[in-house]
Design goal:
46% helix
């Protein structure tokens, strides 16, 4: 599965090292050319019938059953490319900005009716029903993004009115075929856009630079996914002549959000990949719900070896899952004494905003992403696969999850600072590597910018994703 999760994408640091006359090897072993595809280890098939519940650490299986006024969060002129003026039969000018703002207003009103003190899900349901005539998954980028938020709000109102338990967690994979479709969507997004690769390579480079002088590395990961980010880290470690010789990854996951088949595939693929590159490797899965139910006081199996360095991957969206426990999560991370904490913000997890405002901000982020994908001119089947298996489930999770945890928090950066974390600046090499990656994208409107300590991937002056690094 992990011969890079992307087709012909090679590590941008390789080309950059060539240009800088560095001494790092400029190619991977022959068996690991960037052929794309997902390698399913032969040994994995033997585990398919035994995957249920066998990967979790036996910590515990207990499970945990200013912005108050409506802002004009959208600069709607920025959401759409310039278009020629069109007119209806009465020669009245059609204004696409007004069309978008009208949809935003209706979505905001529906969300506000669902979550406000004077909640009225029946009235909200009527607003969303009218939007059925304006939105479809076949419209422009904004309309498609708005369609997915409309669908998620309709699911929410249906659950409320019918007293159905609201579960924002990811629906378990029904079959290996469903998992393959999900992987395929992720792979397609990696191929056509720097959206995923930018975050992975930027964070990995920061981690690598913090590990100089250590021969053992322990990564604590709050967002394991398919493990593609760590496949790239393993490859970089395998290319080193000296330095790190052993990598351990501890994935903190919930049985409610991670399908056991998917977890097993990730685990076996990473083990196989590391073995082929002769990198010492260990993979552990810990039940994050057990940590949460114990107020984040249970210890992890972290070595006190002076030659082992700890790095933590803590993306911003994790906070929306444990919104009321964020300070405890950050204290837990500090107790691990990591050399570095890396975080990725995709702009959709604004728990510092009220429910309705948060959803409009997330709509903006996904509209920008879909517009950037439209510019690539990929075939419609591939685009629909990305939206069906990645975008729509992510939108549903945002809407349902925030409804269950409506409390506002500080902005995520303020949370880091108030917990005693200090931002780290990315190196010039890391910045150049990100720019090298983006320049290889066929569409030229992508670019990288620095904003304070952040490194940000932008599309037409709009931010898509940002990376940050922190020390305790």
């Amino acid at each position: 599965m992990l011969r890079w999760i992307m087709d012909d994408v090679e590590d941008p640091s390789v080309n950059l090292n060539k240009m800088l006359n560095a001494t790092v090897s400029d190619s991977a072993p022959a068996d690991f050319e960037f052929s794309g595809g997902f390698i399913f280890p032969a040994t994995f098939n033997t585990h398919l019938n035994h995957h249920q519940n066998q990967y979790f650490s036996p910590l515990n299986d207990t499970l945990l059953p200013q912005y108050d006024k409506k802002p004009n969060l959208y600069n709607t002129q920025m959401l759409i490319p310039p278009q020629p003026k069109t007119y209806n039969s009465r020669s009245i000018e059609y204004n696409p900005s007004m069309h978008q703002q009208g949809i935003i207003d209706q979505l905001f009103k529906a969300a506000d009716l669902i979550q406000s003190e004077n909640n009225n899900p029946i009235l909200a349901q009527g607003i969303l029903a009218r939007l059925n005539h304006q939105l479809s998954p076949a419209g422009n980028s904004f309309e498609r993004a708005a369609f997915y938020f409309k669908q998620a709000l309709q699911l929410l109102t249906h659950s409320i009115l019918n007293n159905i338990n609201i579960n924002p967690q990811i629906t378990p994979v029904d079959s290996p075929f469903s998992l393959i479709y999900k992987i395929s969507g992720y792979k397609l997004l990696s191929e056509v856009s720097p959206y995923i690769q930018f975050a992975n390579f930027t964070c990995n480079q920061a981690i690598l630079e913090s590990l100089i002088g250590f021969d053992r590395v322990h990564v604590i990961d709050f967002d394991i996914g398919f493990g593609g980010q760590w496949a790239s880290l393993i490859q970089k470690l395998g290319l080193r002549n000296n330095g790190v010789c052993f990598l351990k990854i501890t994935a903190l996951v919930s049985p409610l959000t991670h399908d056991q088949l998917e977890l097993g595939l990730t685990r076996e693929s990473l083990i196989h990949f590391a073995s082929e590159l002769n990198v010492g490797f260990e993979f552990e899965i810990v039940n994050i719900d057990a940590l949460a139910s114990a107020s984040w006081c249970l210890p992890l199996n972290v070595s006190d070896n002076d030659n082992e360095a700890v790095a933590v991957n803590l993306p911003v969206h994790v906070f929306s899952n444990y919104q009321t426990q964020v300070p405890a999560v950050l204290r837990f991370v500090k107790r691990l004494s990591p050399k570095i904490v890396v975080s990725v913000d995709r702009g959709c997890d604004r728990t510092d905003l009220p429910f309705a405002n948060h959803l409009i901000q997330a709509l903006k982020s996904y509209s920008n992403l879909l517009e950037s994908l439209d510019a690539v001119n990929m075939n419609i089947d591939s685009l629909q696969k990305i939206e069906r298996f990645l975008v729509q489930p992510a939108v549903e999770k945002i809407v349902l999850g925030r409804f269950l945890f409506p409390e506002k928090t500080q902005h995520w950066r303020d949370l880091f600072v108030s917990a005693g974390f200090s931002p780290l600046l990315f190196s010039n090499f890391t910045e150049s590597q990100a720019e090298c990656l983006v320049k290889r994208t066929p569409v030229r409107e992508f670019y990288v910018k620095k904003r304070q300590s952040l490194l940000v991937l932008c599309w037409r002056r709009r931010e898509l994703v940002s990376c940050s690094a922190w020390k305790c």
